[in-house]
Amino acid sequence: MASLVIDCCTLCNDDGTSTEAVRWCIECEVFLCTDCEKHHKKSRISKVHNTMSTKDYHNLPKFMQDISSHCRDHKKKYELYCSFHDCPCCVTCITDKHQKCQEMKPLSDILRQVKSSASVQLFEKDLKDVKENLEEIIKHLNSRINTSNSQKTKAAEQIRSTRKSINDFLEKLEQEILKDLDSKQSKLKSEMDTLLQQLKSQANQMSQLQSEFSKMQYATELQTYVGLREIEKTTSEAAKHLEDLKGGGPLDEVNIELIISAELQSFFKDVKSFGDININTSPFPLQLKAVRKDQAQYLVQNIPTIEQIKPTLLRQLTITQKRKSIDIRFCRILPDGKYLILDNQYYRGHLLLFSNDGMFIREVLILTGPSSDSCFLRNNTVAVTLDLEKEIAFVDVEKNEILKSINISHSCDSVASDEACIGYNGIRDICHFNFRDMGYLS
Question: Could you tell me the pTM of the whole model?
Answer without folding.
Answer: 0.39
